[in-house]
Write a structure and sequence with these properties.
Layout lengths: L1 E5 L1 E2 L1 H18 L4 E5 L11 H10 L3 E3 L11 H6 L18 E5 L4 E8 L10 H11 L5 E7 L3 H11 L5 E5 L9 E2 L5 E3 L4 E4 L8 H10 L12 E10 L6 E9 L1
Parallel strand pairs: 1-3, 2-11, 3-4, 6-7, 7-8, 8-10
Antiparallel strand pairs: 1-12, 5-6, 9-10, 11-12, 12-13
Helix pairs in contact: 1-2
């Protein structure tokens, strides 16, 4: 089956770009399931019910998030009520929402897991241990796709090797720059360090460059805002064998 995984969607312009281009991508590649990271899809950061609706209306099936998921309190009820909006599973159990979900498709059941890194990030429980606990709860025969939202390349790669052969694919998010290291690990798990982002291309990770440059030059606080330049979409297309649950192909996708 074909699973399209899309990098961090940035603001209203990123959501609108998804709405224009995702339907044709689904048709072109005969996509069975779309996973997109939406933790920056609201204007000014975070995720709101309105930005989540835009992503779902564009054709996204599951929204993953990361360390900005709780920035907007208006999303808290949706995290509890909508099983297809995830927050990282290694947050404390008392936080709103859930870190994994199971989606029934025509071809297979797919478990989507959302995890958060610990290196250069706020303190949180181990993503490795959280993955173990979730996998122990799953029945046989499900495909498993993992979004590892993390800063450090080493942590993302380490988790991928740790889960190699136990999940179908691991993709990284958070750094907003698509990496060129897509591969299939020795035991059949597809992996890429970072999907990239869907948002303004001429930017610094989706943000207008000038306030960021001023901050580097002066060390003074600067108000950041999303760039208004043309957008692009980036991610990977996974071809997964539903019998072996291994990745057959992993290809980078970019739309400009």
């Amino acid at each position: 089956m074909n699973i399209l995984c899309i990098g961090d969607v940035i603001g209203a312009s990123g959501c609108e770009f998804m709405m224009r281009h995702l339907p044709s991508l689904r048709k072109l590649y005969a996509v069975d399931l779309v996973i997109a990271n939406g933790e920056n899809s609201a204007e000014g950061n975070g995720l709101t019910p309105a930005s989540a609706d835009m992503l779902f209306n564009s054709g996204v099936d599951v929204i993953t998030t990361g360390n900005h998921v709780f920035r907007r309190k208006e999303i808290y009820p949706a995290l509890d009520e909508n099983p297809r909006i995830l927050r990282p599973a290694n947050y404390p159990a008392a936080t709103p929402g859930k870190g994994w979900t199971v989606v029934d498709t025509v071809k297979a059941q797919v478990c989507v897991i959302n995890l958060l890194g610990t290196v250069f990030m706020d303190p949180i429980d181990s993503a490795f241990e959280a993955a173990d606990a979730i996998l122990a709860s799953q029945g046989e025969g499900r495909l498993v796709i993992v979004d590892m939202h993390a800063e450090a390349t080493s942590e993302k790669r380490a988790l991928a090797f740790y889960l190699d052969g136990r999940v179908s694919a691991v993709f990284g998010t958070h750094t907003h720059v698509q990496t060129a290291d897509e591969e299939i690990l020795p035991h059949g798990t597809g992996f890429i360090t970072d999907l990239g982002m869907t948002g303004p291309t001429l930017s610094v990770l989706g943000i207008d460059p000038q306030p960021i440059i001023r901050r580097f030059l002066t060390r003074l606080p600067s108000k950041f805002s999303n760039a208004t330049t043309p957008c692009s979409l980036s991610g990977v297309l996974l071809d997964i064998n539903t019998k072996t649950r291994q990745t057959n192909l992993i290809n980078r996708i970019q739309v400009k």
